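General statements about sequence and structure are easier to judge against a single worked case. Part of our work consisted of pairing the sequence of a single chain with a tokenised description of its backbone. The amino acid sequence and the backbone structure tokens for this protein are reproduced below.

***
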Amino acid sequence: MSDHPEVPVAPVEAYEPPYYVAVFTTVRTDDQSGYGETNARMEDLVKDVPGYLGMDHAQTPGGLGITVGYFRDADALTQWRSNAEHRAAQERGRADWYRSYTLHVAKVERSHGFVRDRTPRRPAAG
């Protein structure tokens, strides 16, 4: 949802399934007045939802944005969806900020991750 250059770039960790993802893909309008402040508020607000696991963001140079929210269970996702401030932000998004969007919600059944070891390796003895 926002750019945080001071935060190291890393995906949300792989969690033990099952859990849920909400994939929000957008194309924004030219007028983004008020978007940054509202977006920052939503990022803070969602962290208070019990069962919220994290969020990944990506933006293409052409303007396609993708946000993936991770939630432990369907109840956590429902709580976020029904939050009054979130609902108001959704309405403002449809009215002002988004040219188009899609939302896909899925139950994750398999999950794993990889992190490259940053410790230099020593050559094998031989």
Observations:
- Strands lie at 19-28, 52-59, 64-71, 98-108.
- Residues 106 and 124 are 45 Å apart (CA to CA).
